[in-house]
Design a protein that fits this description.
12 strands; binds S-adenosyl-L-homocysteine; binds iron/sulfur cluster; alpha/beta
Length: 325
Amino acid sequence: MANWSAMTNLTELLQHNLSEAFEFSTIELAHKQGSADTTEKFLWKLRDGQLVESVLIPASPSLYGDQSDRHTLCVSTQVGCAYGCKFCASGLDGFKRDLEPSEIIDQVLATERWHKEQDGANDRLINNLVIMGMGEPLANFDNLMTALEILNAGWGANIGARKITISTSGLAPEIRRLAHQPRQYRLAISLHGATDEVRNRIMPLNKKYPLAELTAAAEEYQQAKNGKITLEYVLIAHVNDALDQTKPLADLAKRLRAKVNLIPYNHVDGLEWTRPDETTQDAFLLALIAHGTKVTLRREKGHDIDAACGQLRLRTEKELAGIAD
Ligand code: SAH
Ligand code: SF4
């Protein structure tokens, strides 16, 4: 429901009074890419005109939850990002603001509403969430927890906690906080390097929370939740794709009982980084398998959720500014 007048169980007077007293907040679709049988990207305009994106991934075996017969939505938690990972589009313009809980929840509801209007889909379309859109989720901890509480609740969106994966670039104190809150959300850590030397090159946050500290926090989460952790590893040519990373990565995965998810880098306009060729990707994958690591390499284009990370917003903002390529 997107306005008070849709609440037909209320009297007209009550609807009117409510609409005078309370704003009915929703987000507005600014742009959409993709079709129902591929990955669909939604760019949302917030009340203050800021833009954030969500990505809907159609039914397929989900990488971040159990087998899905419905859909996974990748949601944003902030406008921009303060952490400035060198390869990422989301941080290019810096950090603008945190999303409110309602703006996180609205990404789910507005996506479902859009589909219902377009193709008569069920009220409830989304049963998996990955908190991997724009922003660093654990830097907006309280608002995210409030939003997830509602998305998880039976009276809310009823999305199982184990079907919600939070991705972090490595905020060690907040990983510990997550370990001690009551829900069983899954954790994905954007590692992208198995040594401090490699991580320091591409992730400024690693100077603040080096690998030893990040690993200790992740271990605390693992023990508290007996939770399955995913280590995300974006393969970037000549940065982190050398085979000498595979042994420390395998050791880390073993210590954390984690699986590793290799993601070939998606090019970002204006940035110098590229993805390694497929031979290099395969060699990296095989070396990890040889070390006994549980590992996946994501290659299908249509399901490439990380392609979204800030890129759609960036492009649209450029277009709006009249400097589109
Ligand atoms: N801030 C959080 C969540 C958002 S980013 C985090 O960093 O985990 C979601 C994922 O997309 C992260 O693993 C991030 O490193 C990755 N990513 C960012 N830019 C990418 C790109 N151009 N190609 C592939 N993955 C990218
Ligand atoms: Fe921020 Fe994550 Fe992008 Fe790093 S990878 S800049 S933490 S959104």
